[in-house]
Amino acid sequence: MKITSIILLLCCLMLTACGDQDGARQAKFYAFGTEIDVSIYGVDAATAENTVDSLQQTFANVNDTWHAWQPSTLTRINQAIAQGETVEIKPEVAAVIEQAALYARQSQHLFNPAAGKLFELWGYHQDNWFESRPPPSQEKIDRWLESAPTMDDIHIENGMLRSDNTMVKLGFGAFAKGTAVDAAIDALRAQGVDNAIINIGGDLRAIGSHGERPWVIGIRHPRQEGRMLASVAVQDDESVFTSGDYERYFSYEGKRYPHILDPRTGYPARDVISVTVIHQNAARADAAATALLVAGLDWPQIAASMGIDRVMVMRADGQIEMSPAMAEHVNLTDKTLTPQIRQVTQ
């Protein structure tokens, strides 16, 4: 899971504190266990400072609602599901769960927020997820596979949520950052900000432009730390999200176990090591990046069913694959790489 405990504002967040570079006011703070960069263009200092409380409250609300193992709305929901009980939820919580369920169905449940118990088996529902440990036994994995929990097991009616499968445990790590970014962009727009980027650990949404030019985004190389695989220019309103096997993993007896799990096998996905998706909606891009990594070499079919037409994939053998629409936007840093173009079709 991507989401970890939120660390809000280790020091006072002031958008003017990092200066005004080339007309863009910038700030850095921490949430979701990672650095968040905010760049705002074309506003005065007072408007920039007024965004502070809105952003702080937005990220705090997401954490308080969706944290997977510290007390939150989500842990309360999961406790009720485990006990076979019905639980009352707010309309805004229901809307997010229903949105996640839609993306899950469109991905053929390769994006599976109901798979929290599987991630728990692998030790990813805890703060020390990076520590070395043996993988779960095949018996435990088989037991989870037999229960086959998906978002189709969740039922919401008249503000009440229930599940007919007590093995369902909701977790939105492959969705929470996108949801938070979308909410933060709404908060910025409410403050009158029309040109900005919110970047959470390399995943981002950009609105408007950087003056007369687009925002230029670097995409991390999944195997060469500190190097960029590619760059892409985004403007108007676009989100760029990447899932990779380098983000979170633990090692045991010399073998790496990445955190992106395939709900069909119960084990980490292996055929693809990095997927980058561009889409207007950050939550959809976040969910799709995970689903397409799990899909492996079948990613074009899942991309089509999720309404995603801009995709870049690095396979485990180092081959780059792209959709035609993505090839028009991406500039590969390593000019020796020749991407394979694959149509996004079902």
List the main descriptive attributes of the protein structure presented here.
single chain; 346 residues; alpha+beta; 10-stranded mixed beta sheet; 3-stranded antiparallel beta sheet; 18 strands; 30% helix; 26% strand
Distance between the termini: 28 Å
Oligomer: single chain
How do the strands line up in the largest sheet? 1-2-3-7-8-11-14-15-16-18
Structural class: alpha+beta
Write down the secondary-structure element order: EEEHHEHHHEEHEEEEEEEEHHEEHEE
Number of helices: 9
Uncertain segments are 1-19
Helix content: 25-40%
Largest sheet: 10 strands, mixed
How large a portion of the residues is in β-strands, by DSSP E? 25-35%
Task: Report the count of strand segments.
Answer: 18
What report would you give on this structure?
With 346 residues, the protein is an alpha+beta fold. The chain is built from 9 helices and 18 strands. The protein has a 10-stranded mixed β-sheet with strand order 1-2-3-7-8-11-14-15-16-18. A 3-stranded antiparallel β-sheet has the order 4-6-5.
Topology:
Layout: E1 20-21, E2 24-31, E3 34-41, H1 45-66, H2 73-82, E4 87-88, H3 91-106, H4 116-121, H5 138-147, E5 154-157, E6 160-163, H6 176-190, E7 196-200, E8 203-208, E9 215-220, E10 228-234, E11 236-244, E12 249-252, E13 255-258, E14 272-279, H7 282-295, H8 299-305, E15 310-315, E16 320-322, H9 324-327, E17 330-332, E18 340-341
Parallel strand pairs: 16-18
Antiparallel strand pairs: 1-2, 2-3, 3-7, 4-6, 5-6, 7-8, 8-11, 9-10, 10-17, 11-14, 12-13, 14-15, 15-16
Helix pairs in contact: 1-6, 6-7, 7-8
